[in-house]
Amino acid sequence: MKRLLFGVSSLLLLFVVACSDEEEAYDPYTNWKARNTAWFASVADSARTAIAEAKAQYGDSWEQHCDWRMYKRLDQAQDYNTGRVDDSVCVKIAAPNTEPGNYSPKWNDSIRISFRGWMMPTVYQLYNDENVLVDSLRQFVFTETYSGPFNLETAVPVLNAVSPFVVGFYTPLQYMVEGDDWLVYVPARLAYGENKRDMIPAHSTLVWRIHMTAVYPCNSGVPDWK
């Protein structure tokens, strides 16, 4: 009987050790490039489908009935088909703009914005509820200018020029106007590509939530923030 109990105990110990080893071996970045590529392709497909349906139903006024946008970098013709899924950023309007501005910033303008950036492991929460950020996934936030869910009353926008950002960030900025609140999905090719950047691995699809507070044309000067 003692020998049997010892054998059972040994098996249980081996099972616990094996499970522990599996947990320690878990790597959230396994097959990172393939997973990021596939996930962005699925987002782009959702965007293209929604835009096509809105255009078919509403014609030239489709943007009033669709939350999705797709933008190529501004040095490319927007209607030219490159044959690549990663030639554009995908935009989902996070909140309606009730008092939109009438000027989109250019390359050499300045802006005040609030933003947060995530890597792919959190985008499933983002896709269902843009304000949800699971505490256990905080390690996948790589930059932010506000804490907690975005709140226009408490967020303190930062002053930046448009030009220093990566192409996948400055491209949508040049389509935004004051008051816009967007989720921007950026393929690795328009972010950091094959390069690692701080905590961001190579081949990372990135997601930013961006709220445009103010736009200052380059010849107007930047007023003091009040």
Summary tags:
21% strand; disordered N terminus; Chitinase A, domain 3; 226 residues; alpha+beta
Looking at CATH, which topology would you report? Answer: Chitinase A, domain 3
User: What is the subunit arrangement here?
Assistant: single chain
CATH architecture: Roll
Mean pLDDT value: 82
By DSSP, the count of extended strands is 7
User: Roughly how many Å apart are the termini?
Assistant: 80 Å
Text of the CATH class: Alpha Beta
Secondary structure: helix percent: 25-40%
Query: For the CA atoms, what is the radius of gyration?
Result: 22 Å
List the uncertain runs.
1-12
Please outline the helices and strands.
Elements lengths: L1 H24 L6 H27 L9 E5 L15 E8 L14 E10 L3 H6 L12 E4 L13 E4 L5 H7 L7 E6 L19 E11 L10
Antiparallel strand pairs: 1-2, 2-6, 3-4, 3-5, 3-7, 6-7
